[in-house]
Amino acid sequence: MNHFDYIDQQILLQIREDARKPFSQIAEELKISNSLVHQRIRKLKENGVINKAEFVIDEKQIGYKTKSYVGIRLKEARYAKSVVNDLAKIPEILECNYVSGNYALFILIFAYDNHHLRNILYEQVHQIDGVAGTDSFICFDTNFKRQITLESLVKGKQI
Amino acid sequence: MNHFDYIDQQILLQIREDARKPFSQIAEELKISNSLVHQRIRKLKENGVINKAEFVIDEKQIGYKTKSYVGIRLKEARYAKSVVNDLAKIPEILECNYVSGNYALFILIFAYDNHHLRNILYEQVHQIDGVAGTDSFICFDTNFKRQITLESLVKGKQI
DNA sequence: GCTGAAACAAGTAGTGT
DNA sequence: ACACTACTTGTTTCAGC
């Protein structure tokens, strides 16, 4: 487990909201040198706390209007690995997890519309060897979507 | 619906993978001026296609080991709005959607461990007025997690 | 572990085609 | 819609505390 101090926490809070924020500006606000900001960010990368900076694309704006979570049941548990492999080939599936409960796998799909979603499920997912059935949870609206809190992050003294 | 050309597509492909990639470098690779890169990105922002750049934080590295999707059933549909309001106050809930199917709401929770998850569900979520019950889909492993494909984005000629 | 200065690279804005 | 130039700003490295 990593150790974070107040500076690390503050840097993380800022860059996760704006990955293009100038390091020099962060330095100014925290009243530290910009080389220190640089150093800390390098260490956070080395420790795998942050990996990459991404511009967030609004899926709706580029035509993907239907978002749906889908639970997948398998004929037998041993199919899991090969099913995951086949699911990975479908570009509209953005996330795939092994889960507890009624389903073996739980995936996230973005499709152009409901019809497109239906096609992906019936013509692609259901054709995969080992898939017994699926249940869809189509998202009518996303009420909120946010990043994890960092308030509890600082183990040391907060200056 | 927006119109995208080859340049827009290429810029999006690059900055969504590395939001800190110098615009001048993108310009060089696409053999255009860096002011054009700048212009295009400004337009993509104006159109809401991209909104912000975020550094991706690895939740596991900062102590959140348990990821779980949770379906929520309500006593009556009319509770939906106030329940969403109360869910938003729980910081470990990172996403909340209205969905079709067996559940009214579908949320994503990150907790320190299974015990912490149990506490959040029993002591917080289940106490909310209108919540009838929940089903948890704890993620044992995330096989993949990726961004949407942009191959189909270009409506015009690809040079 | 941190700062400060200096060399270098990138972002920005205005002008012209 | 795009490129070019001049100007401003940010990044990065390294010697020194």
From TrEMBL, chains A, B:
<dbReference type="GO" id="GO:0006355">
    <property type="term" value="P:regulation of DNA-templated transcription"/>
</dbReference>
<dbReference type="InterPro" id="IPR011991">
    <property type="entry name" value="ArsR-like_HTH"/>
</dbReference>
<keyword id="KW-0238">DNA-binding</keyword>
<keyword id="KW-0804">Transcription</keyword>
<keyword id="KW-0805">Transcription regulation</keyword>
<feature type="domain" description="HTH asnC-type">
    <location>
        <begin position="4"/>
        <end position="65"/>
    </location>
</feature>
<dbReference type="InterPro" id="IPR036390">
    <property type="entry name" value="WH_DNA-bd_sf"/>
</dbReference>
<dbReference type="InterPro" id="IPR036388">
    <property type="entry name" value="WH-like_DNA-bd_sf"/>
</dbReference>
<dbReference type="Pfam" id="PF13412">
    <property type="entry name" value="HTH_24"/>
</dbReference>
<dbReference type="InterPro" id="IPR000485">
    <property type="entry name" value="AsnC-type_HTH_dom"/>
</dbReference>
<dbReference type="InterPro" id="IPR011008">
    <property type="entry name" value="Dimeric_a/b-barrel"/>
</dbReference>
<dbReference type="GO" id="GO:0043200">
    <property type="term" value="P:response to amino acid"/>
</dbReference>
<dbReference type="InterPro" id="IPR019887">
    <property type="entry name" value="Tscrpt_reg_AsnC/Lrp_C"/>
</dbReference>
<dbReference type="GO" id="GO:0043565">
    <property type="term" value="F:sequence-specific DNA binding"/>
</dbReference>
<dbReference type="GO" id="GO:0005829">
    <property type="term" value="C:cytosol"/>
</dbReference>
<dbReference type="InterPro" id="IPR019888">
    <property type="entry name" value="Tscrpt_reg_AsnC-like"/>
</dbReference>
<dbReference type="Pfam" id="PF01037">
    <property type="entry name" value="AsnC_trans_reg"/>
</dbReference>
<protein>
    <submittedName>
        <fullName>Transcriptional regulator, AsnC family</fullName>
    </submittedName>
</protein>
